[in-house]
Amino acid sequence: MGTTASGAGATTTSGATAGAAAGGGPAAGGRSGTGGGRPATAVDRPGGADLADPAFWRLPAPARAAAFAELRRLPAPARFGAGQGRGGRDQGFHALVRYADVVEASRTPGVFLSGPGVTTPEPARWVRLLFGDSMVNLDDPRHAQLRRIVSRAFTPRLLSRVEEDIRRVATELVDRVEHERPRDFVNAVAAELPFRVICDMMGIPAEIRRAILDQVNHASEHTGVARPLRERLRTPGRGLRALARMQGMVAALGRERRRRPADDLISALVTADVDGRRLTGRELGAFFSLLLVAGVETTRNALAHGLHLLTVHPGQRALLLGDLDRHLGGAVDEIVRHSTPIIQFRRTLAVDHRLGGPDGPLLRAGEKVVLYYGSANHDETVFADPEAFDITRTPNPHLGFGGGGPHYCLGAHLARQEMKVLYRELFTRLPEARSVGEPELAPSSFDHRVRALRFTF
Question: Which of 15, 69, 85, 101 has its CA 20 to 30 A from that of 79?
Fold first, then answer.
């Protein structure tokens, strides 16, 4: 498949609610030639690449990778999308494409704010008021408070049961593959595993799961995907209506669990008392949207990319199957690094800030930056031969689950477990499982989405 110009990461996940509604290791490598801290806006874009243009995301993967490699060599972040948007605001942004810069922005939350919105475009104020704020769109102290409530709900008992559920679901899915021989790996396996695991964990009744999945698909199908104007006008509120229906279902479950708690995550979230606080119905809906859209889509895409990468790199596949115990963990992390399921999140500067130190390029308060995780995961100053797919890569400080800091992915452990258990089950029982042809990808600027992947065994 070759490298992609996508990125990874975030909080299990991603900016699901707002995104759907609105349509780390040590840093390496210094910055040279900054001209005594010249403004970042002074840097010209190389080769005509325009990350704000939907046409860029329809380019072949090698072309996008080459453009990001050029951007990483610039002395300061290039600026894209300048111009006046809603309310006369400047909609431009600086592209953070180097590993060190993405880590700095992630781990300096007092300077690089998430509160104005991490998706592009930022969610409208009325949307956030109606649907509630996703954790990814919050700064401290509200973010820390919600994260404490959610973290408290993930009890050892719950986590132990989730691991059992992952093994059970993976076994059932491979059973079905073996007997029914489906042709699309995404629908048959990659999407099913995380969806079923999350529904089991949350305590979603079986009779409404398909309805919820339909709403998830409607809410997220066009996020970051360029569409013709006629198509956008035809169904302008489809994603919002789907989101509203999904959150309504979850809010009703939350009210029921407050009256009659069960042994599931919804009950834990609505009954947990952390500093006198528990999740409200709207907060529960926003968290569930984040968990479902982000947790399902990112793991689904990583699983699909992984099968294809192991198909088109037969030497790495043979190495993995020769000793699963030794190489499976490394393979999962290399799949996440190489394919990086989430392309980007944005931040807003709270104050004037020189990126990388006192001699670095100057970013002004109120300006926007976009963190390109996939570019950071292919930074030559951190990863030797970054375009190579190498399951023995050590160390592998990829940013596939975020760049560190308060928004590091809460579900990183869950995603790794799902991938390891599924691949172990699949390759132990069906060692000839492989993709057929190229994956069908969405030309998205938000996530590295696999719509379909033919496979056989």
Answer: 15
Q: How far apart are CA 398 and CA 373, in angstroms?
A: 9
Type of residue found at 203: G
- Give every CB contact of residue 151 below 8 A, 6+ residues apart in sequence: 410
In this prediction, residues 430-453 reach a mean pLDDT of: 94
347-399 tens-digit pLDDT: 999 999 999 999 999 999 999 999 999 999 999 999 999 999 999 999 999 99
Q: How many CA atoms lie within 13 A of 308 on its CB side?
A: 26
- Three-state DSSP at 129 gives helix
Phi and psi, residue 225, nearest 5°:
-105, 125
Which residue(s) pair with 368 in the sheet? Answer: 348
pLDDT digits (tens, 9 = 90+) for 37-56: 444 444 455 566 899 999 99
Question: Region 75-100: what's the mean pLDDT?
Answer: 80
DSSP string across 210-246: HHHHHHHHHHHTTTTB---HHHHHHSTTHHHHHHHHH
Q: Give the tens place of pLDDT for each residue, 198-236.
A: 999 999 999 988 888 777 666 655 454 454 444 443 434
Gap between the Cα atoms of 223 and 446, Å rounded: 7
Q: What angle do CA 378, 379, 381 make, to 5 degrees?
A: 140
Distance from the Cα of residue 47 to its chain's centroid: 28
From residue 80, give the alpha-carbon distance in Å to each of 41, 53, 124, 214, 319: 9, 9, 21, 35, 42
What is the chain's Cα-based Rg?
Answer: 21
Cβ-in-10-Å burial (0-12, 13-18, 19+) of 272 comes to middle
Those residues whose C-beta lies under 8 Å from the C-beta of residue 258, and which sit 6 or more positions away, are 270, 271
Q: Please tell me which of 240-249, 272-281, 422-431 the model is most confident about, judged by mean pLDDT.
A: 422-431
Does the pLDDT value for residue 96 go beyond 60? yes
Helical ranges in 108-191 per DSSP H: 125-131, 142-153, 156-180, 185
How many whole angstroms separate alpha carbon 120 and alpha carbon 446?
8
Q: Look at residue 31 and tell me whether its pLDDT is greater than 60.
A: no
Report the b/e string of 413-423 with b at 16+ CB within 10 A.
Answer: ebbbbbbbbbb
191: helix, coil or strand?
coil
